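Minutes, project check-in
Item: structure for the 126-residue chain
Input as provided by the requester:
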Amino acid sequence: MAVYSGARPRSTFLPQRSRVIDTPTLPRRRVRGAVRARRRTNRLPIALGGIVLVFLLAFFSLAQTVRVSATGYDVDRLSRERDALLVRKQELLTDLNRLGQEPAVRKLAIDQGLTQLRAPLVVGAH
C-alpha cells in the first residue's frame, strides 16, 4: 500500500465528514492547442471511410438481391420445362394406349399393304 503525505486512514465506524477544499486563487483555464493554433481535427478520412463502408454494404446487398432474383427466374424456368415434359409424357402415354389396341394395329397393317390371312389350308396325311 502506498503512503501519501497528508493521507489519513479512513474510519469505518464513523461517517465521512465533508471536507472543505480551498479553491485556487486563480481559476484554471483549459487551453486547447488546436484551437489556439487555429487548427481543426481533420474528419475527412473518417467521412470517406464511412462513405466507402456504406457503398460496400449497399453493393453487397445489391449482389445478394440479384442472386436471389436470378435463382427465382431459374426456378420458374425449370418449373415451366417440367410442366411441358409432363404434358408431353401424358400425350405419349395416350398415344401408346390408343395404338396398342387391335383396331389401330389392323389399320396400321392395312396401311402398310398387309392383308388379312386367307382361310387355313388343311393338308391331309397320305
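Outcome recorded: The chain has three helices and no strands.
No further action items on this chain.
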